[in-house]
Design goal:
Elements: E1 6-13, H1 29-44, H2 49-54, E2 58-68, E3 77-87, E4 91-100, E5 103-115
Antiparallel strand pairs: 1-3, 2-5, 3-4, 4-5
Length: 131
Amino acid sequence: MGKALHSHRINIRVTYQETDGQRRVHHANYLNYFERGRVEMLRAEGVRYKEIEDNGCMLVVTEMQVQYHSAAEFDDLLELETELVEVRKVRLRHRYRLMRGEELIVEANSVIACVGRNGLPKRLPDLGLLR
């Protein structure tokens, strides 16, 4: 994937319920962090995800590639960078980097498709991210 078309950062504090018995973030919870990053990127551009859905467009994950480099732990303060790297008629590609200070914890790539309420592909609405 090439250069980012749009980038956004948020801080995430690891809560106790996101961890396993060793107080490390359970691997599935990183997917929730990525979702939060995408939603907050849209919000920063004045687009509410709820409004997208209210207008009949669902943004669904069709691919997710995740590489775990280290473990985040309870009470860590993390920084998530979410980058939009490609926009097609019905698809978005994102890249994620989750850091604890200078340490890379997780990196990932996703493909998000726009579908209508009938489950069929639908042209993406103007999300304002390419201005």
